[in-house]
């Protein structure tokens, strides 16, 4: 069953056809992937086989496994996703690591009452991953798309973080008077002319508004950067995700706005992925 599925997915251009076939079969059978690996000849019930066939039809259209199953793991937490939210990427975990490293180096410890602001929160993955590590932190996530904001709220409730995380269906232009310790954001940063070159999983299924960074990919940063200093409490820091080759340009924008840019953090591929900023 897996062999044929793998061949179909490979023919459709899927990157890791064996793994995806196994993930979908495990989900269809409602077993862990490890159980399938341990016992590949396991017998498949009719309903599970039908479900698997349906999942495969979807994956052949390059719909990502996460969107077929409606969930994505991020920071070892399960996030519900939907059409209005960007599918969380492993690269974005770099921002969580960077913000936690700052917390650990601050001398205040993870138990302090950190205040977090997440701009363009999408599924809520950045805000909620941070609150899951900082037991007394509170946070505000802003998300323009009301459907995505509803998903972020559902994710907060799913992880028992809804008493500490507030999600507002607003644009970041509307934040006033915020004074926070940690600002995180994964804004849209793909150069408009390059969106069409991304994988079909991205171009067909991620929301355009979460990808499109304008002609040079920097529109969202140009809008965001001048506002940051006004939202930072003393000692606060900003953690911005950037495209693999945009680190220098975004640091220059931040410096131009009078902010300091301590060394950023690289992703697993070695690209500067998280740019940091603080009040001068
Ligand atoms: N990392 C995403 C991609 O390249 C882009 C997300 C974004 O623009 N913030 O597919």
TrEMBL record:
HAMAP family: RF_methyltr_PrmC. Coiled coil: none annotated. Residues 2-70 form the Release factor glutamine methyltransferase N-terminal domain. Residues 113-194 form the Methyltransferase small domain. Belongs to the protein N5-glutamine methyltransferase family. PrmC subfamily. Methylates the class 1 translation termination release factors RF1/PrfA and RF2/PrfB on the glutamine residue of the universally conserved GGQ motif. It comes from the Bacteria. It catalyses: L-glutaminyl-[peptide chain release factor] + S-adenosyl-L-methionine = N(5)-methyl-L-glutaminyl-[peptide chain release factor] + S-adenosyl-L-homocysteine + H(+). Signal peptide: none annotated. It comes from Rhodovibrio salinarum. The keyword Methyltransferase applies. SUPFAM superfamilies: S-adenosyl-L-methionine-dependent methyltransferases. GO terms for biological process: methylation. GO terms for molecular function: nucleic acid binding; peptide chain release factor N(5)-glutamine methyltransferase activity. Keywords: Methyltransferase, S-adenosyl-L-methionine, Transferase. This is Release factor glutamine methyltransferase. Gene3D superfamilies: DNA helicase RuvA subunit, C-terminal domain, Vaccinia Virus protein VP39. S-adenosyl-L-methionine binds at residues 120-124, 143, 172, 186. The keyword Methyltransferase applies. PROSITE patterns: N6_MTASE. Substrate binds at residues 186-189. Its EC number is 2.1.1.297. Transmembrane segments: none annotated.
């Amino acid at each position: 069953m897996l062999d044929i599925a793998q061949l179909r997915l490979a023919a459709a251009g899927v990157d890791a056809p064996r793994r995806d076939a196994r993930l979908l079969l495990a989900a269809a059978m409602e077993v862990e992937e490890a159980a399938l690996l341990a016992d590949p000849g396991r017998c498949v019930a009719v309903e599970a086989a039908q479900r698997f066939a349906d999942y495969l039809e979807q994956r052949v259209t390059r719909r990502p496994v996460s969107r077929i199953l409606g969930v994505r793991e991020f920071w070892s937490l399960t996030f519900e996703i939907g059409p209005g939210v960007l599918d969380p990427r492993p690269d974005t975990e770099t921002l969580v690591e960077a913000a936690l490293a700052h917390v650990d180096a601050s001398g205040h410890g993870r138990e302090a009452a950190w205040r977090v602001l997440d701009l363009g929160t999408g599924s809520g993955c950045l805000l909620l991953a941070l609150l899951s590590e900082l037991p007394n932190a509170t946070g505000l996530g802003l998300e323009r798309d009301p459907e995505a904001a509803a998903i972020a709220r559902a994710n907060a409730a799913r992880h028992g973080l809804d008493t500490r995380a507030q999600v507002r269906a607003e644009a970041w232009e509307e934040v006033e008077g915020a004074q926070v310790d940690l600002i995180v954001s994964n804004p849209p940063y793909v150069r408009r002319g390059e969106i069409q070159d991304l994988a079909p999983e991205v171009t067909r299924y991620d929301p355009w508004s979460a990808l499109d960074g304008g002609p040079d990919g920097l529109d969202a940063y140009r809008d965001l950067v001048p506002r940051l200093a006004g939202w930072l409490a003393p000692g606060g820091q900003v953690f911005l995700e950037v495209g693999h080759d945009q680190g220098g340009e975004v640091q220059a924008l931040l410096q131009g706005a009078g902010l300091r840019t301590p060394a950023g953090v690289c992703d697993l591929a070695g690209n500067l992925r998280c740019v940091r900023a603080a009040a001068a």
